[in-house]
């Protein structure tokens, strides 16, 4: 993907959310990779709350095991729209947003993932 118009998908969920006995954020990340998305980033929040209004925070006195997780992926509008449909099925309780973005610089061209998904 070169510079130009793109679409950003942002997924908000909890660290303790699971999908088929796997952390949900990892299942989504692996699915995005398998489906050929240009790249994705998983970020662990230091504090947050959702619709239940329960605050989750990482403090010395109280370490939460359910910290907020945000997954961000930018790609072509078609690929993001397809990814959004898959993610909504995998994470029906997550907040999923999409917005149009201008890609200023995309870095190196994407490398096709190998069959081995384990880090070296």
Total strands? 8
- Number of distinct helices: 2
Biggest sheet architecture = 4 strands, antiparallel
Query: Per DSSP, what share of the residues sits in E-state strands of 2 or more residues?
Result: 25-35%
Write the layout of secondary structure elements.
Elements: E1 4-14, E2 18-19, E3 22-23, H1 24-34, E4 40-44, E5 47-48, E6 56-57, E7 68-75, H2 77-90, E8 95-103
Antiparallel strand pairs: 1-7, 1-8, 2-3, 4-7, 5-6
Describe the protein in words.
By secondary structure, this protein is of the alpha+beta class. It has a single domain, classed as Alpha-Beta Plaits, CATH 3.30.70.120. The protein is 21% helix and 34% strand. It contains two helices and eight strands. It has helices spanning 24-34, 77-90, and strands spanning 4-14, 18-19, 22-23, 40-44, 47-48, 56-57, 68-75, 95-103. The strands form three sheets. A four-stranded antiparallel beta sheet has the order 4-7-1-8, covered by helices on one side. A two-stranded antiparallel ribbon has the order 2-3. The two termini are 26 Å apart.
């Amino acid at each position: 993907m070169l510079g130009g118009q793109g679409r950003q998908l942002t997924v908000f969920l909890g660290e303790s959310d699971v999908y088929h006995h796997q952390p949900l954020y990892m299942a989504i990340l692996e699915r995005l990779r398998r489906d050929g998305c240009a790249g994705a980033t998983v970020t662990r929040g230091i504090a947050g709350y959702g619709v239940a209004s329960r605050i989750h925070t990482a403090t010395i006195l109280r370490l939460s095991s359910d910290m907020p997780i945000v997954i961000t992926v930018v790609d072509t509008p078609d690929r993001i729209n397809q990814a959004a449909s898959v993610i909504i099925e995998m994470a029906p309780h997550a907040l999923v947003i999409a917005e149009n973005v201008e890609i200023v610089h995309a870095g190196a061209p994407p490398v096709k993932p190998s069959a081995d998904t384990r880090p070296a």
